[in-house]
Specification:
heterodimer, A: 555 residues, alpha+beta, D-Maltodextrin-Binding Protein, domain 2, 19 strands, globular, B: mainly alpha, MetI-like fold, 2 domains, transport (chain A)
Chain lengths: 555, 348
């Protein structure tokens, strides 16, 4: 599992990180994320901190079995251009035939996929990407450096409506001018090597390529329905693609998947995704009926029930969260005092307990998680319902009826109910509106006060870049604060954890001062599978790594 | 008779036009169109961009004109964008505009495109209606004999203990809506909590392969509700026939009771239930909406919910047309069948 040649020097920052781990300044997980992001292989990274590479538990105990059909519940959405994917489910179907440059592993490390290795210079402004050799597209073409550049160019195209990859590639783009990839930003050194010249230090550029909209497509792809002409490097092909009903992946018999030689797998012949809507009771009925072998995710109220069915549980601690955010473009949330007062009325610990059965960590309203490397502790104003009410009265909205909108998914709805109930206890008039998923997500950035699900990103700056940077595609709060912008740009360029933490403390303080959202808790993700399903443990960012999945035949 | 059928078909056409126009008007209200523009072109676009998107995609024209386009009596819209490419309602992507037909409405057999399912409306409705047809067929197979037997047994001897018991039972099941009985069935017969686990609480697998385990509960939920009602009607009709003079005469002549019921009473008693059963079919179609959503059986009712939830205009219109046809066709069959069953009406 070594992907960087042993005799090449390890990135100096990784050595520093290793020191920090040894002295207890950095957690092991954080170390793995950061050092593998700099191009150090997982094996070497574990070695630097004196640990062996952990074998997956099942590898030790059992040999994977070839074949079989795995059926999993999942909400099924129409296939569209990968860079505009705004929901993990799009990607999980697309992953059948589209691979990624790199893959984020549940332990926090980055696994080289279509890139064989990568290396950053000292200040993370120049990156050398090595393209994996011997990879074939399923139409017979070779995967080359041209393909890497083609995909980076696609990601950089900010003129495409809803292309969230553009925000992740800012240091490669001409942001002010053409809104496209900068001339000279990407250089093909030889057919196996690509060099990135960044406009500013960016520690997350390769990590960003693991995010789910970064599926790697063929040069002939026409930006339409990717399942219509499924050219990819992946091991499966889409067989059935019925939105809201069923999506099926079948093993491509005429294609040798590059990963078999490198990582083993794939094992399954068929993967069937079946849509049961947003009601977890419907999924439970399906599980009890034997219609599915695994569920997408277990909602907290159902954990004990699935345990009772004898299904196997996997759990991942994550920085996945809900942001009950205020749209600052809307009345009365354009008033900072109103936002802060509403935050002040809510005890996040209560929301975690009532909304998510205490399966997670209490969060602090600034959307940076303790598992992020640069997390800094900042002082949070105490919960004070009386003061909250007084502040609202002072702002002239004492009698205003606040409307809190959520989707009908269970815990999001329950969390909002817990928030609304606490506000009402404080004497604040709050109305709850619950919308079905099909309606809610059409307008999720528009609602004045609503609840949004945010998946985790490996680094704390990543989600801030996506959700709170002015003009970002997913900025749902209309947050536009010059101090924040300047500090975030600064944080994005600091590779060192401790140095960045100092800036992060200021960023967190700005977010708290501005009252961007009630962000009550960090979720643990849970998935239950039938006992004969292996390798399909829940992933912290909901990724489905199909090639790891296998099933014991049932007698 | 032919005149009668022709008149009925004309009524059907008129109703379909009125209803679809109503649906068209409601789904094309300004906020609904704005929602469509935002789903299609991104949720963050400005009001001006919404306007321009709507104009570019044919939504800018007057309501009646667009309705005419959908019907196929007016030519479909076309626009020429900045790059000079011509797009239009009737021009498929990649098709040469010169070759595209001018008209493309339901008169030309083009039902439009479903935005939710990313498929032609005709094929969505075809697939989903077939699935609901399967459900309805089994519902009728269970309901019709069940209801008739219950009604006849109860109506044979009015006021007897059998009558009281069966009447109470049929009133009880009719008074229980599908969303109650369905949930009770799932709780009792499928969950590990009660432990019976005789059936599946989800009918998704029944779409491909229906069997006793996965299809019983949805069928039963719809059937029971209608069964009670039809049984009550059959009973009423049966008791009326049983008090008729020719029945008394037959009894006095010494014909045995079973003979009286089967030979003399039954045919006359079945006229009323026949009409009720036919009228029950459109009613069942609404029950199907609930049951299909409850059991995740992706048929016509489920499609209606999805289409309505997402303001999928052309799919909703297609569904309306199909609904009108189903309702009026079953009424037509019921009227014609009534005439056939009752010779007195045939003569008049």
């Amino acid at each position: 599992m070594t992907h960087t040649t042993k005799d090449r020097a390890v990135h100096p920052a990784a050595l520093l990180y290793a020191e920090e781990v040894k002295t207890g300044h950095m957690s092991r997980r954080e170390f793995l994320t950061r050092s593998t992001a700099l191009g150090v292989s997982a094996g070497v990274a574990y070695g630097l901190i004196g640990l062996p590479v952990p074998a997956r538990a099942q590898d030790a105990a059992m040999t994977p079995v070839e074949g079989g059909t795995l059926r999993m519940s999942m909400e099924l959405r129409p296939t569209k251009d990968p860079r505009t994917w705004d929901w993990s489910e799009y990607a999980n179907f697309g992953r059948g035939w589209l691979d990624y440059m790199v893959e984020y592993e549940p332990d926090g490390s980055l696994r080289p996929m279509l890139l064989e290795s990568w290396e950053a210079n000292e200040d993370a402004t120049e990156w050398t990407l090595k393209v994996r050799q011997g990879v074939k597209w399923n139409n017979g073409d070779d995967f080359t450096a041209e393909d890497v550049v083609n995909n980076i160019k696609r990601w950089c195209d900010g003129t495409v409506e809803g292309n969230s990859m553009a925000g992740r590639m800012d240091t490669l783009r001409d942001v002010e001018g053409t809104n496209q990839m900068r001339d000279g930003a990407v250089e093909i050194v030889d057919p196996a090597t690509v060099k990135l010249h960044l406009s500013a230090p960016d520690i997350a550029i390769v990590t960003n390529m693991a995010d789910y909209p970064a599926a790697v497509v063929h040069q002939s792809y026409d930006n339409g329905d990717p399942a219509a002409n499924p050219i990819g490097t992946g091991a499966w092909l889409p067989e059935q693609n019925e939105v809201g009903v069923k999506q099926v992946l079948v093993r491509n018999p005429d294609h040798t998947w590059w990963g078999t030689a490198v990582y083993g797998g794939p094992y399954l012949d068929r993967i069937e995704y079946i849509d049961y809507g947003t009601d977890p009771a419907a999924v439970l009925a399906a599980a009890e009926s034997g219609e599915i072998d695994a569920i997408y995710g277990t909602t907290p109220d159902f954990v004990e029930i699935y345990d009772g069915l004898g299904w196997a549980k996997s759990e991942a601690v994550t920085a996945t969260t809900v942001a009950i955010r205020f749209q600052q473009a809307a009345e009365p949330y354009n008033n900072r005092d109103v936002r802060r007062a509403l935050q002040q009325a809510v005890d996040n610990a209560v929301v975690l307990e009532l909304g998510y059965n205490n399966l997670g960590l209490v969060a602090e309203n600034h959307h940076v998680c303790p598992i992020h490397p640069e997390y800094a502790e900042v002082h949070r104003p105490p919960v004070d319902p009386a003061a909250a009410k007084a502040a609202l009265d002072a702002a002239g909205v004492g009698d205003f009826e606040f409307e809190l909108i959520s989707v009908d998914d269970q815990y999001e709805s329950a969390s909002c109910d817990a928030v609304a109930a606490q506000c009402r206890d404080a004497g604040i008039n709050v109305k709850r509106t619950v919308l079905p998923g099909s309606t809610f997500w059409n307008d999720w950035t528009k609602y004045p006060w609503s609840c949004t699900l945010w998946n985790m990103r490996p680094l704390g700056v990543q989600v801030l870049n996506l959700a709170y940077k002015a003009g970002a595609a997913w900025n749902e709060t209309s947050f536009n604060n010059p101090d924040f912008e300047a500090l975030l740009a600064q944080a994005n360029s600091i590779a060192d954890a401790d140095a960045r933490r100092e800036v992060m403390a200021k960023i967190e303080q700005v977010l708290l001062d501005e009252g961007v959202a009630i962000q009550p808790y960090w979720r643990s993700l849970i998935r239950h599978t039938a006992t004969n399903v292996h390798g399909a443990d829940v992933h912290p960012t909901f990724e489905h790594h199909h090639y790891k999945w296998w099933m014991e035949p049932v007698n | 008779m032919l005149m009668f059928i022709a008149r009925r078909l004309l009524t059907m056409l008129g109703t379909a036009i009125c209803l679809t126009f109503l649906v068209f008007w409601l789904t094309n209200l300004a906020p609904n169109l704005e929602k469509i523009a935002k789903t299609e072109a991104g949720s963050r676009i400005t009001d001006a961009e919404v306007e321009s998107w709507l104009d570019k995609n044919g939504f800018g024209q007057p309501l009646l004109v667009r309705y005419g386009e959908w019907l196929g009596v007016l030519p479909g819209w076309t626009t020429t964008d900045e790059s000079g490419a011509v797009r239009g309602r009737c021009i498929a992507s990649g098709q040469d505009p010169a070759e595209a037909p001018r008209f493309c409405g339901i008169l030309q057999g083009d039902w439009g495109y479903s935005r939710v399912f990313r498929e032609d409306v005709a094929s969505v409705i075809g697939t989903r209606l077939a699935l609901t047809g399967k459900l309805m067929a089994w519902v009728l197979v269970v309901m019709v004999p069940g209801a008739l037997i219950l009604g006849i047994l109860a109506g044979m001897r009015e006021g007897s203990r059998t009558d009281r018991v069966l009447s109470t039972a049929s009133i009880a099941i009719t008074a229980t809506p599908e969303y109650v009985s369905g949930v009770v069935f799932i709780a009792v017969f499928t969950s590990s909590a009660v432990g019976l686990k005789w059936f599946n609480g989800s009918a998704t697998s029944a779409m491909d392969d229906a069997n006793l385990v996965n299809f019983t509960l949805p069928v039963l939920t719809v059937a029971l509700y209608a069964m009670g009602y039809v049984a009550r009607m059959t009973r009423a009709s049966m008791t009326e026939v049983m008090t008729a003079q020719y029945i008394r005469t037959a009894r006095l002549k010494g014909v045995s009771f079973p003979q009286v019921v089967l030979r003399h009473a039954l045919r006359n008693a079945l006229i009323a239930p026949f009409t009720v059963i036919m009228l029950q079919i459109p009613w069942l179609l609404t029950g199907v909406v609930i049951v299909e959503s409850l059991f995740n059986y992706k048929g016509f009712g489920w499609t209606l919910v999805e289409a309505a939830g997402n303001n999928d205009i052309e799919l909703l219109l297609g569904i309306s047309v199909v609904s009108v046809v189903v309702v009026l066709l079953t009424q037509l069959i019921s009227d014609v069948g009534y005439v056939y069953l009752n010779p007195r009406l045939r003569l008049s």
